[in-house]
Amino acid sequence: xxxxxxxxxxxxxxxxxxxxxxxxxxxxxxxxxxxxxxxxxxxxxxxxxxxxxxxxxxxxxxxxxxxxxxxxxxxxxxxxxxxxxxxxxxxxxxxxxxxxxxxxxxxxxxxxxxxxxxxxxxxxxxxxxxxxxxxxxxxxxxxxxxxxxxxxxxxxxxxxxxxxxxxxxxxxxxxxxxxxxxxxxxxxxxxxxxxxxxxxxxxxxxxxxxxxxxxxxxxxxxxx
Length: 224
What we know:
There is one protein chain. The chain is built from no helices and 20 strands. The chain has 224 residues and is an all-beta fold. Strands 2, 4, 5, 7, 9 and 12 form a six-stranded mixed β-sheet that branches. It is elongated, with a radius of gyration of 21 Å.
């Protein structure tokens, strides 16, 4: 049996979005593009996201918080499908809540001779943050240590909104030496960026040349 593995079965936009619990921004539109020459069947599953200190995610059903229309769709080759996401959860939340809309391919493909082939079942998990209007993050580095290959950086978010490391300016100090990393450049040192509200996360960080983790302090400030 031949297995067809498409390079890109479909595209989802946006992959990251922000919503508010009330008002016009309590609803958004997501688009799924079928970039192949065969029909695509997808299912949209809303999931609530929590995360531990190591960034490991726990996903639980969020059907009571998010309404997805349609839940399933068949998209013709080269066409796209618009999906509406509407927040139905508590309107008076005081801190942001993270969700994923899991877009899951359900196709079974056929080759030119119409023999049944097993298609690659792809899955895209978008990130949706529902954030109250006046909620803000408050990020601070609370721990720094050195491992064999990487630094271990603990970042605490004491604010009511999710925060992103790439939206902060990093200022490293070691004695009289100072080095600044712009938020947009932090991706060269740390792979992930998201810190949920009222939580801490431990990141593996590429060491900064000329700095020793034992004697270095890092302060964070808004990049803009």
